[in-house]
Amino acid sequence: LSDCGLTEEGVKLLLHGLCSNTTVKSLDLKGNNLRTVGAEALGKLLRQNKSIRSLILEWNSLGVWEEGFSFFCQGLGANKFLQRLDLRNNQINHQGARELAMALKQNTNLQELDLRWNNIGLLGGRALLNCLHSNKTLKRLELAGNNVPSDILKAVEQAMEHNQDRQAILRETQNRAYILSKEVLSLKDEKTKQFLDLMDTIDKQKEEIARSGRMSAARVSQLQEALDEQHSIMNSLKAKLQMTEAALALSEQKVHNLGELLNATKQEQTSMAERHFMELQQQNQEGADREGKLLRDLSAASEKNLLLRNQVDELEKKCKVQQDQLFQVKQDLTNTTAELKLRAVQAEERLEMEKRRFKQSLEDMESLRLKEVDHMTQHMEASERSMQDRIQRLEAIRIALEEELGQVKTAALTERVQAEEELIKVRNQARLEEQQRLEHLEEKLRLMTESRDEAQNCCLKQKQMVAEAQAKASQLSLHADGLRRRIEELQQDLNSKEEEKVTEVNKVKVELQEQIGHLQAERTVQEGLREKIAALERQLKALSSNHREALLDKEGEISLLLEKLRMKEADISRMREEEAQRASFLQNAIMAYVQGSPLGTRSSRK
Known about the structure:
The protein starts with 7 loop residues before the first helix and ends with a helix. The protein is mainly alpha-helical. Helix 7 packs antiparallel against helix 9 (423-596). It has a domain at 8-148: Alpha-Beta Horseshoe (Leucine-rich repeat, LRR (right-handed beta-alpha superhelix)), CATH 3.80.10.10. 83% of the residues lie in helices and 2% in strands.
């Protein structure tokens, strides 16, 4: 939109529309003759817009309208996204430069500012130089064509170089921080992998212990079922014995001896059964006690593992915090040392420059004073002659400038013929350049006439300047002594801070070594727990094998008892058969005896 000749209302509407825009990155309003309304709209745009990075306002005469320009500077101070601003040929005076300096103190994102061909002067240059002490982001500031002294320009260039170096150091520190963060993340990933591997191994061990527990529980249940079957068998045997006792009770009188034998066998059987039952209960209790001990050991081991996990997490957090603290301490050390070195170098350079200047000024002033005391009358005549020569030179310069104007006009005509495609832009630029050059020439002629008038007053002012220079020299010597004392104090503070930081770093190293020792001790404790878990597993295996052997022994004893019972039943059946045979023999004998007796014969006769 450069050189379009927009009206005040059009510029206001355009900038109001751009306030909420988020896509425009660069805005060129060169040569649109913006006034108070345009400057206020620009200030509002800078307050609200968040996308514009480059703003070109060349040839707009914004410095003429003080209220509008102050509003524009307020918007610039509140903006946090603009990076490049072009304010060439805007008739900005020293008051506008002060407003800009106040805005630059608040702005923290602007990197390039072009103020060439304005009317900033000495006061404006000083204001801009003072604002650069607080602004650390501005990398390029152009002040050519503003009647700013060379020493201020050099100081501004040094400040720009300092800001560029500072931003380069900041970029390097950011890159280093990014690399260190990557390394820290990789270390974290490795530690998490190691911790996950440990957790996996612990989980596997727990699963194996749970499997062995389930296997042992299944085996115990199988043993319990076998014992229950044996109890049922014993109950059935007891029922059978009771039946046999009921059958034998009928023949107790006949077989009393057999009854005593049976009672003895019963007592032996009951005592054997009770012994077996007590032994099985003891074995069950021992197995339950062992299982309870194993479960308690497992729960204690799991609690210890949880405690170790929590301790490992706390130690990792402490390591992270201490690493962050070390990194911040290192950054603070580097920043403070760099800033102090730069301040010391700048102070020394300023001292040397000011000493040289004042030595030269004192020497010049003394030589001039001696010449003036000796040759005051001659100097007045020489000054009149020099003024006449200056007037002649100024007339020659005016003639040469008029010739240059003619040459510029001819060059503009030739450029118009060669650049037919860009006629509108070139015409406007040529007109503005001619107007500015004419204004500069008129200002130079006016300055020459004023310098002729001022040269007559220089003789009177030179004596006052000598006295002021001597007073300034004394003040500067006092200021130099104060700066030296300040530098010594800063060096002492630096040494004390470095010693404190060294002690803190040593303390952190000692704490890290202690934490590493604690971690190693915890690792040894974990290895001991693993060995205990392995020993418990071996004990479980030994107990299971012992249970199997005991069960096999009990099964063998039960089989022996069953064989004994079968033998006893066979003996009882055999004894019953013998008693039955004896009873039959007795009956036959009795019958034979009865038949052979006289009672039997009588009964048979009847």
